[in-house]
Design goal:
This protein is mainly alpha-helical. Helix content is 74%, strand content 0%. It has one domain: Arp2/3 complex 21 kDa subunit ARPC3. The two termini are 17 Å apart.
Length: 193
Amino acid sequence: MVLFYLIDRKKRILVTIAAVVLAVVLNGIFSFLNDLAHLPIFLDSLFTVITTALFGLWPGLAVGLLSNSFIEFLNGFPGIYLPFTVVNMLTALVTAGFVYSKRFETATNAFWLIIILAVVNSLSGALIVTVLFGGYTDLSMDSMVKGIAVTGQSVLSSAFMVRIVVNIVDKGLAVLPTFFLYKRIQARSLSEK
């Protein structure tokens, strides 16, 4: 949200819309390339975190809502990306909660945001993948889920265990650059006052 108030009032809406569109496209491209590389990670919410921290909750929710639709389109509408829109939007909600409550001011807080996002995203993602898809969505991490399920764990707990590890890395890749960018913009805005 730090960037939102630095923009001239007349240009705010236009700049915010441009940022949302760019973030949706970048989330889609990163996720699509990640799927092509078969990496056990998501990369679908990097720019949801950035947009939320810099422009606020509503632009972040818009990015979360539209990103998964765009990812679905890029992959030929297989039906597995759209349900996870909820997860992407939860990323925006949690990030906004940290920013609005001034809990995005230290590296320790950024670390806690990574952990909380990882838990929230893993729980919601595991529920969606278990309820809607029986635990598997043809992503590279599904083999890890199957491997854990073979040991006697439920599909839900297996999906959660895999997703928690993946989400810590994934959200770290989203939160850490956002934190440093946020702090840099914040410092610059304070020095201009």
